[in-house]
Protein: (S)-mandelate dehydrogenase
Amino acid sequence: MIPSNAIHSAEDARRIARRRLPWMVFDYIDGTAGLGTGAARNRAALDTMTLRPRVLRDVSERSLAAEVFGQSAQRPFGIAPMGMCNLSTPGADLMLARLAARYSVPLGVSTVASTSMEEIIVEAEGNAWFQLYFSGDGSGTFKLVERARAAGYETLVLTVDVPEVGRRPRELRHGFKMPFRIGPRQFVDFALHPKWSLTALAHGKPQMANFLMDGYEFDRTESRARATWDTLARLRDQWGGNLVVKGVMDPEDARTAKAAGVDALQVSSHGARQLDSAPAAIEALREIRVAVGDEYPLFYDSGLQSGEDAIKALTAGADFVFYGRILQFAMAAAGETGLQQLWGVLSDEFSITMAQIGVTSVGDLKV
Structure:
C-alpha cells in the first residue's frame, strides 16, 4: 500500500501540506493577489505549451548539469527566494540551504528570511544569492547590502515588482501579519492543527532574522514605492558582484535594465502574488528574450510545478529557472525528507522529459 504521505508530484506535496498546516500559514504560502486569476493565467499558459516528442535517438545518457554565472550546477533549476520559510516547518531555511549545497544550485535568500543571511550561506556552502527589497528611504536597504557583502555573497537579486505589497485576500481573512501576532482566531486555527503548533512552539516564534540589527525595525507593509532607476544605478555603483533584477515583465524595462549594467534579469510575476491582471510570466519571457537578445542571461520563476514546466521555460528563452512555493509544501508535508523526495521527483520529471523530446543535455534545449 502506498503511504498517504508519499510525494510523487508537486500536487501531492500541496495536498499533504494543506492538511497539516494551519489555514493561516497555508494561505500565506499558497495565496495570490486578488481573485487568483493571475495564478490561473500562469498555469493555463504553461499548460498550453507543448513539447514535441522525438523518436529513435540515443538518449540513454542524459545530463542535467548546467552553468550559471560561470559556476557549475548539477541542475538547471534552483531555489527562489521565499520569505518566512520556517513557517512551513522549523528549520526550513537550512533544509533548503543543505539542498543547495548538495546540488551546487543557487538558493535565493530572502530579505525576510527567518534565518540570518550569514547562517544560511555557511550551510549552503556558498551556493546562495541574497535577495534585496528596497524599502522606506533606503537606509536599511543599503545596510543589508553591506551585510551581504561581508557575509560572502557574490550575487545580489534586487526584487522590483513590489512597490507596495499586493492585496492577498486569503492572508487578510486570517489576519496574517508579520511580525507574527496571535489573536483568538489564530489560536483556534493553531489548536486545530496541534502537530504543527506544538512543533512550532518548541522552536519559538519565527522572526525576521535579517532585521535583528541596530537601527532597523522591519515593517512588512512599509512602502517600497520610492525605488527608481536612480536607485538601481546607485546599487550598481556600490555592488561589484553579480547583480540580478527580479520581477521584470516588460520588454522596455528589460532593455533599460540591461543598459544600466545589470548582469541578468529574472522574469517573474512574483508567483502571481502582486498584480492579478499581470500577463502570464511565461509569455513575458518570450517577449523579453527577443528584447535583450540571445546571449543575455535570463532567469525565470512563477508557476513552475514540474520538471516538464522547467523544460518549457528553458525552451521559451530562460537560461536557468527557480522553483518556489512547492518546495515549502514538500517541507510542510514531510520535512527534509519531503523536500528531498520532491527534488527527486522534479529531477526525474526533467530527465524523463528530455528523453521523450530526444535531447541529452540542457544545452540542447536552446538549439
